[in-house]
Design a protein that fits this description.
alpha/beta, Methyltransferase, Cobalt-precorrin-4 Transmethylase, Domain 2, 2 domains, 5-stranded parallel sheet, 5-stranded mixed sheet, 9 helices, porphyrin biosynthesis, 4pyrrole_Mease_sub1, EC 2.1.1.107, S-adenosyl-L-methionine
Length: about 250
């Protein structure tokens, strides 16, 4: 008499912003041991190359405003492979708990009785700020740091624009490139100063990283120059530019 295989395990992990050096040791070990890797489109080839020889890689194809695998299908794959006794790694760019539908996937695993582990990853905002030699919080400048998305399931996302528009506010706007004109309009409508600094970082931490800096008045034009995934840092300029302004004011 044969017995069914016990359920496998699912690890939901963050691959970081792209550079393999930003991968945590725990996630690297999960890659080495996984039988199935269900990965987002933005996970870099260098990271995926760390998967063990036994691993089957399956791209789940998430892309904002573009072709995407249905979330329900991803959850079906994840549960199905685990029920077949496989060690599954659900690998997402950045951190799985930031705009990564982590809650929905955990709900699916709970409903199926599948054991899981969540491993965090470095998020794009942290990598982008580091590339600017900037701190996301700083005494005397901002006592809080905001994370928000530029679009949701129903289109461009609304936010507390009045609080975001206040002087000294620092925020990271994910998936905001195509919503740049909408974001600019909302911020200006709520009193945002057109000269507030903004920096867009494309492909943060990767060899092809690009940084475009300007002001709120420039935001749509800056966004139009970018092709890849980008995070908008509202209220931050590169440290070199900030230092130059201080020196110029002192002269």
């Amino acid at each position: 008499m044969t017995h069914p295989l016990p359920f496998g395990h699912v690890t939901l992990a963050g691959a970081g912003p792209g550079a393999v050096g930003h991968l945590t040791l725990a996630v690297a070990r999960a890659l080495e041991g996984a039988d199935i890797v269900l990965h987002d489109k933005l996970v870099s080839a260098e990271v995926l190359a760390l998967a063990g020889p036994q691993a089957t890689l399956v791209e789940t194809g998430k892309e904002g405003f573009g072709p995407s695998m249905a979330q329900s299908h991803i959850e079906t794959l994840m549960v199905g492979f685990a029920q077949a006794g496989r060690n599954v790694l659900r690998l997402k760019s950045g951190d799985p708990g930031l705009f990564g539908r982590l809650g929905e996937e955990l709900d699916a695993l709970d409903a199926a009785g599948i054991a899981y582990t969540v491993l965090p990853g470095i998020t794009a905002a942290a990598a982008a700020a580091a590339s600017l030699n900037q701190s996301l919080t700083e005494r005397g400048r901002n006592r809080e740091f905001r994370l928000l998305t530029g679009h949701g399931a129903d289109g461009f996302a609304e936010a507390d624009w009045a609080s975001l528009a206040r002087p000294g506010t620092v925020a990271a706007i994910y998936m905001g490139k195509k919503a740049a004109r909408f974001i600019q309009g909302r911020l200006m409508m709520h009193g945002g100063c057109p000269t507030t600094p903004v920096t867009l970082v494309e492909n943060a931490s990767r060899a092809e990283e690009r940084r475009l800096s300007g002001t709120l008045a420039d935001l749509p034009a800056l966004a139009a120059q970018l092709d890849g995934p980008a995070v908008i840092l509202w209220g931050l300029a590169p440290r070199a530019a900030e230092t130059a302004e201080i020196l110029e004011a002192a002269q």
